[in-house]
Amino acid sequence: MTNSQLTPGIVAGRLSPADYAENFADIAPRLDAHEARVAADRCYFCHDAPCMTACPTSIDIPLFIRQIATGTPEAAAKTILSQNILGGMCARVCPTEQLCEEVCVREVAEGKPVEIGRLQRYATDTLIDSGTHPFNRAAPTGKTVAVVGAGPAGLAAAHRLAMKGHNVTLYDARAKAGGLNEYGIASYKAPGGYAQAEVDWLLKIGGITVVTGKTLGRDLSLEALRADHDAVFLGLGLAGVNALSAEGEEKSHVHDAVDFIAELRQSRDLSKLPIGRDVVVIGGGMTAVDVAVQSKLLGAENVTIVYRRGREGMSASEHEQDHAASKGVRIITGAAPLRLVGEDTVEAVEFAYTKAGPNGLTLSDQTFRLKADQVFKAIGQTLEGTPEGLKLAGRKIAVEGPGRTSLPGVWAGGDCAAGGDDLTVTAVAEGRDAAEDIHATLMGAAG
Predict the structure, then answer these.
(1) What's 97's domain CATH number?
(2) Do residues 267 and 388 lie in contact, with contact meaning Cβ atoms separated by under 8 Å?
(3) Can you tell me the distance from the alpha carbon of 295 to that of 274, in angstroms, rounded to the nearest whole number?
(4) Is residue 389 within 8 Å of residue 219, measured between CB atoms?
(5) How far apart are CA 143 and CA 140, in angstroms?
(6) Domain containing 317 — which CATH number?
(7) Are residues 362 and 265 in the same domain?
(8) For residue 140, what are the β-bridge partners?
(9) pTM value surpassing 0.70
(10) What digits encode the pLDDT tens for the residues 111-121?
(11) Alpha carbon separation from 106 to 36, 50, 66, 112 (Å, rounded)
């Protein structure tokens, strides 16, 4: 976004250095040792813990909280990381209020759950800060595995495979490993370069070679990867962005939200990142909330999220919606974009109210306009290009069981694979489980 492309309403440096520092500080700072012990003491250590069932990676939550309560956070971290090697990042970005904490007995009885996410962060940060890597590689198997995509699913698969004694080559299209953890989440959730620090820590297992700047279909072919390796895991993510299908979306200052978040995440100086005065975000998921809140934190005066269904249909959690509202973001539901108004540059967006009926959503005759000098599209992503020979389920890679695709020797997991939720923690679970199945297959134990 160069200055020559900007309109008068889109400027950099809207705020003071102190404001940027405050706005993008850690949203939920780490508990100290005393706070962690107090928080852990609230746990009932349930025998049939509902929080464990609600965790996509099946972490033994009562056990790790008991370990914190007894003053052994490093042991707690190993309990967490044995199931979720990216437990540090998941503690920051996982919607715990919809998963483990929602079913906590304390939440049901008192309306205030045990702070499972913050306790998980305390334990994992304590261990990672120590520089210790508590896992060792098994004896070398002589097998090699290609992992394409260094996001949560690929990283989890690569670590588990390396731990089993296989040699892994981890490819990624971007300049850094990390995937959405590095490029796609709000900066205030993981400040201070945490995503790369976690990747560096994970790679201490050994046996993983990272190759960046390589894209499947351009620099790599699935056929060649299958020929050169004993197995292939695809954790490609979703690089394509859905179109608005609204008139005028090609106008200037209409951006893909994921690209803007990536630019913000990689920015060394937020005061140089231009933002509009009147920002409109179209979508209802976490990306929509993240780009809207960060626009407000960068100094936008008016930020509005518009979603075509009701609030209950938004994939962004109620907690995240409330967070957006607390930062001054307006949320309008039940409206879909008709056209983006303006000459070459967007000046407003015209919406129609929607109606839900037996045949889905329909547009009503009632319309309204929102002034906009900058528009962000956050209406979901899609698989970009179809890896050769793979069967699809809808717009994602079809998989069976622990990530087996239609091609022998090829597994897939994370957002690119059909089924499951588009969550970091789910991607980690799928990468881990696929790695276990790959290992069993390579060693002749799989059915």
Answers:
(1) 1.10.1060.10
(2) no
(3) 10
(4) no
(5) 8
(6) 3.50.50.60
(7) yes
(8) none
(9) yes
(10) 999 999 999 99
(11) 17, 11, 16, 6
